[in-house]
Design a protein that fits this description.
about 240 residues, alpha+beta, Alpha-D-Glucose-1,6-Bisphosphate, Chain A, domain 4, Double Stranded RNA Binding Domain
Amino acid sequence: MIRKWFWFTLIFLFISTSSVISWAVIFAPIHFQPKIIEKFETQINGLKQKNEIWINQGSLEKLIPLIMEKWTNEGWVSEGSSLNLAPEFFGVLDESSSLDSKIQMKVFKKEKIYKTLGLLESADRNQTYGYVSEIPDAAFNPKQARARWKFPLLPPDTSDELFCQKLQNFQVAFISIPADKNPENTFNQLCLSQGFNQKIWRQEIDKKIYILTKGNKRIVAIISFEETRCHISMASLNN
């Protein structure tokens, strides 16, 4: 299954792009005939990711079966038995939550390609925004990621989950390493060895947020601690 960090990036791009666009409602029978808002490409671990944002008349509830039927006929197999991944992503555990009727996230696969789907229903429930992306599963290979790493802070040798994406001059990266006796010290040493100065911006029980600087480079880094792993999420905006 695709990692949660991938969904973070997907939904960030989806909401930030669709939220600035408004379309008139066309009254007609509900069909899955999306109107393309935007197409663009990004790089994930050096491999091309195709992205598409569209809008379709109709509520999310009515569109879901139409999309599932079309994609199944095209040979796409749903990962996770067609479950909506949005509750897990947002940390909503209440089964009675109405999240399913407002936003849906699903993952499909055909041969060696992942296809992700994000759906967001409009406030008036008359139309639905869709975000679709396709990415080769090779992009999630740590060796591929390490060989094509473009983020300013290089990952440590102990990292076994790596992700780096660039959209124009905005970059995000995610690193996961086994939690040793002092994973925070490991991160600090990593930064110092590459010439980055560190300053704690915010601190919580299970995470810390740092600002890293090196010349004109500035990185926001979030370190999350789990029992056996340490996750580092980073964002950088190039000057």
